[in-house]
Amino acid sequence: CLILSFFSRGKLGRYPPWPGKIVNPPKDLKKPRGKKCFFVKFFGTEDHAWIKVEQLKPYHPHKEEMIKINKGKRFQQAVDAVEEFLRKTKGKDQASSHNSTEEKNRRNSSEERGKQSAGEEKRKASLSEGKVKKGTGEGKKRVSSVSSERGSKSPLKRAQDQSPRKRGRPPKDEKDLTIPESSTVKRVMTGTVAGFKWPPSVSEPVKDSDPHFHHFLLSQTEKPAVCYQAITKKLKVCEEETGSTSIQAADSTAVNGSITPTDKKIGFLGLGLMGSGIVSNLLKMGHTVTVWNRTAEKCDLFIQEGARLGRTPAEVVSTCDITFACVSDPKAAKDLVLGPSGVLQGIRPGKCYVDMSTVDADTVTELAQVIVSRGGRFLEAPVSGNQQLSNDGMLVILAAGDRGLYEDCSSCFQAMGKTSFFLGEVGNAAKMMLIVNMVQGSFMATIAEGLTLAQVTGQSQQTLLDILNQGQLASIFLDQKCQNILQGNFKPDFYLKYIQKDLRLAIALGDSVNHPTPMAAAANEVYKRAKALDQSDNDMSAVYRAYIH
């Protein structure tokens, strides 16, 4: 069975659609309790998910609408894969139908030969009868009796009697070809599914529809019952050789409808590009969240979604068990904790503070020390991703500090990200995050440099992108950023000023251990040039403009 699945996000956005195929789950994978759902493998990826039955809708009436919503190249490739699957399936059905027709023809030929054989037998019997007539009268009577007995049935009827089967019961191969419903579908259809109408059975006529119609379903869901790809689909703590720990609930823990939210009260400070998506997912997964933002108007949307409003950072910390913060830079992080009515004033023994800002190791170490000095617990947890990944609950979380607090945050991390890593003592996550963003920022500058070089040498920028997308560098990041440049659309998904900040901090990290970072230094200069051209509040891909001015 095939599906076209998209995951709604209410007032705060929407997941893109994605086609997939209903398959049998692995034997060791338990079905979510109390939920009627299918196990789905998605086309174009190796991802899997449990999809609730009541969240399924027909494919064909919604196909064009879904294609309009998602114009991404990877999605179109997935749709093409579905169409190819259909063509192959249709070809098999046609071949099966052709074989059935040939079988009918063979049987008809056999019956015809049977008729001819019966006619020949009658002719021989007549000749024999004539010969016997020349004999004695007793012989005449005997032959006459036999002839009368044979004549009581027509040659055709006798041929039918000789046939190995009765004509009223067609052979198995001769029956109308239908696509059998899976036992899973049959079981599900017998139950009551509120608000959902199954498409007609295959045996029923389906007007203007593909014969495989009932195999195509559209999933309308808040989030799938179990997240993708990781076959165990349960929260795993993986100890790696490096000593780091990774909490993984699959390829996307934020789309895990089976998450049990912590009963602890959650606070969140900072509703920027990243913070907004994080809070949205926390609320969707059932967490109790109190929010604060320097610009109070940003809180309104989340209050409507069920969040509570905190008047100051200190108030949020004092009324919540675990408070997260996500702000722009080291200065903002320090001001939030140490400033008037700041976090530190709300800290008392047992209160927990998780800083998700991307800052340097010295800053996060200083914040940890002051929090712990008041009896609080501290965890750094910067995130790798962008606004879209934040909205989709697909962030990668890098954590370090209080291991117990890290485990207490597991349901929150599952709601906001696809994977989280525990990297040991405070400062390690900050260093790792800067290294990750250094690589990303340098790559972005190289992409921009390549596109401008193509342009000035008379080469097609679109062709360059097509070539890159077919090679080893192919990635969502590459495609999206190149599309931004080709379309001249630099709406921020990751602010240029912040990637430049991270490059600067990464270079300083290298300096602190006397390690050369010439590539990052060169990229940093290009971003500084872009900032001078008033590109700070645009997306990082606007670094392209530094090359054309």
TrEMBL record:
Q: Where mainly found?
A: nucleus
TM region(s), chain numbering: none
- Can you give the residue ranges of the PWWP domain? 10-62
Which intervals of the chain are annotated as region Disordered?
88-185
GO molecular function terms listed in the Swiss-Prot or TrEMBL record: DNA binding; NAD binding; NADP binding; nucleosome binding
A single GO CC term, please? chromatin
- Entry keyword annotation includes Nucleus: yes
Signal sequence, start to end: none
Could you tell me the superkingdom of the organism this chain comes from?
Eukaryota
Task: Identify the keywords attached in UniProt to this record, alphabetized.
Answer: Chromosome, Nucleus
Q: Where is the composition biased (Basic and acidic residues)?
A: 88-141, 158-178
| UniProt key word Nucleus | yes
- Which GO annotations describe the biological process of this protein? transcription elongation-coupled chromatin remodeling
Localization per record: Chromosome; Nucleus
UniProt-listed InterPro entries: 6-PGluconate_DH-like_C_sf, 6PGD_dom2, 6PGDH_NADP-bd, GLYR1_PWWP, HIBADH-like_NADP-bd, HIBADH-related_NP60_sf, NAD(P)-bd_dom_sf, PWWP_dom
Q: Which family does it belong to?
A: Belongs to the HIBADH-related family. NP60 subfamily.
> Which protein are we looking at?
Cytokine-like nuclear factor N-PAC
Which species is the source of this protein? Callaeas wilsoni (North Island kokako)
